[in-house]
Design a protein that fits this description.
Blueprint: H1 6-21, H2 27-40, H3 47-69, H4 80-100, H5 102-115, H6 133-149, H7 158-166, H8 179-187, H9 194-226, H10 235-265, H11 283-289, H12 292-303, H13 313-331, H14 335-364, H15 372-394, H16 398-410, H17 429-450, H18 455-460, H19 464-481
Helix pairs in contact: 1-2, 2-7, 3-4, 3-6, 3-7, 4-6, 7-8, 9-10, 9-17, 9-19, 10-15, 12-13, 13-14, 14-15
């Protein structure tokens, strides 16, 4: 079920209404049933994978807790807690591998066999990727690791734990919540609160603006150019890549914001997944502001256990690079995702290595790092590096990515920015200008967010008639200028494929 579908616009009010009128002891059970129904609307059979991951990590948590209670120690034997943790991780990651990476692995083996002139008879492996599998498996594994470390108490109520893994607002595209935050809230009793519901609805409206008005409008241009890079080369591809950066941001941040708003209406606070990433002055800062739930997951469960920055500079650089390679692999079974992740890791390593040189240059030329011009240049340079890596993220394959980069540097057609050619890519001049206006609104909102100004609180501080007028106007704007398919079909979210 998509957030931007008519089905969800019926489903969500019904779920919220019944959540607040049924007895308190049944609230979490109702949310669990609604969450499984939400997921089964995509593919009912694959709900068994969700259930399997839930059962495995729930049982693992109980076994780890029992081992701790029994004061199990190593004493020359295998530590039972560690055995349970490793088993739970291996099984869950094995499920993820089978459904997400096995097909690509078999293709690589077949290709390697052909190159070596070895006949390898590998059957065709074609299976639908379960939506959201990377998100809910990482969330479940985070719980298991937290229990192992003693960071969170074991959840003995299976239904409540199952709700933690499957909570429908963030089930299929995050944010990847931590057990210490979400399970605690699922134990609490929530009453309807008008102000909280209003803030949640405002969040949802902003999320729908990002997705339906902006991301889906940008997608028309990006798909046109990337769909035929042979015809649209040079500056066309630069424009498409820059717009794709904004598209994927609005698409994913839109989903996360709608998820936050939907949960908030029911009294549950989800973590903010984005914090104005394109206003970052360094790549490392950008990644602390982009897909925060995943980057913090890798930091806490991979980077720090690998040694973080505690084992010397070289080991720190290696750990950063490993984390971003894994981040690329997490996004998909394709070498282009690995290169995308590796590039972003490499940016950070090179940035740290060159930091002393940059500091000397700043002192030598008496530059003011806090001046508007200096900060703007740093933001533009960081954004440019990110866009360069996105060529590999967006391209259909390695060959296509290299062809696109070659075209960018060899085809010179800057006049398309001024002769109206950009209005022939699926959006007429009015829609193209509307897209630019909406991007300006996004930048303005992110600048305010960076300065600590919450637009929702500003709206909440106005008179009642003004608040209603703003909300009605925003909804009408989305309905009028949103991009809708034939029959008002809902466009899927990009991160559903991960």
């Amino acid at each position: 079920m998509l957030f931007n579908s008519l089905q969800f616009f019926i489903f969500f009010p019904v779920v919220v209404f019944l959540y607040f009128v049924i007895p308190d002891r049944f609230k979490y059970i109702w949310l669990l049933a609604a969450s499984y129904y939400f997921y089964m609307n995509w593919n009912a059979v694959y709900v068994l994978l969700l259930l399997a991951s839930t059962v495995i990590t729930y049982t693992g948590g109980l076994l780890i807790d029992a081992a701790e209670a029994g004061k199990e120690k190593k004493n020359g034997k295998t530590d039972k807690k560690k055995t349970v943790l490793i088993t739970g991780c291996v099984i869950n990651l094995g499920i993820l591998f089978v459904f997400k990476y096995a097909g690509y692995t078999m293709e690589l083996l077949t290709l390697a066999g052909e190159k070596a002139h070895i006949g390898i008879n590998i059957p065709v492996y074609d299976i639908i990727l379960p939506v959201g599998i990377s998100f809910y498996i990482f969330q479940a594994l985070g719980y298991l690791i937290d229990v192992y470390r003693g960071d969170t108490p074991v959840e003995r109520n299976f239904l409540r734990y199952a709700l933690f893994v499957s909570f429908f607002p963030q089930l299929v595209a995050g944010p990847i919540e931590r057990s210490g935050n979400l399970i605690r809230q699922l134990r609490e009793v929530h009453r309807f609160d008008y102000e909280r519901a209003r803030e949640g609805i405002l969040l949802m409206i902003w999320g729908y603006f990002l997705k339906i008005v902006l991301a889906d409008r940008i997608a028309i241009v990006v798909d046109k150019i990337y769909g035929d890079p042979g015809t649209y080369g040079g500056v066309y591809l630069i424009v498409a890549t820059v717009l794709f950066a904004v598209q994927i941001y609005c698409d994913f941040a839109g989903y996360s914001t709608i998820a936050m708003g939907a949960a908030k209406v029911m009294g549950i606070e989800l973590m903010d997944n984005f914090n104005a990433p394109f206003l970052s002055r360094k790549v490392s800062q950008l990644w602390r502001s982009w897909h925060i739930s995943l980057t913090s997951w890798f930091r806490d469960y991979v980077y720090i256990p690998l040694g973080g920055s505690r084992k010397g500079r070289r080991r720190k650089y290696l750990n950063i690079f490993i984390v971003f390679l894994l981040s690329g692999i997490w996004h998909g079974a394709n070498i282009t995702y690995v290169i995308w992740g590796g590039l972003n890791g490499l940016y950070q390593v090179i940035g740290e290595i060159l930091m002393p040189v940059r500091n000397r240059m700043v002192r030598l030329f008496s530059l003011n790092r806090e001046s508007i011009g200096h900060r703007a240049l740093e933001c533009i340079f960081t954004f440019g590096l990110f866009c360069f890596s996105l060529v590999f993220f967006r391209a259909d394959g390695m060959t296509s990515a290299l062809r696109i980069l070659r075209s960018v540097f060899t085809v010179h057609n800057p006049w398309i920015l001024f002769d109206g050619s950009l209005y022939e890519l699926g959006l007429d001049s009015k829609n193209f200008h509307l897209m630019l206006i909406c991007i300006a609104i996004l930048i303005f909102a992110d600048v305010l967010k960076k300065k600590g100004i919450c637009i929702r609180k500003v709206i909440a501080g106005q008179d009642y008639w003004c608040r209603v007028l703003v909300m009605v106007a925003a909804i009408c704007f989305i309905l009028m200028f949103g991009i809708w398919g034939s029959g008002y079909d809902a466009a899927g979210f990009i991160y559903f494929q991960f």
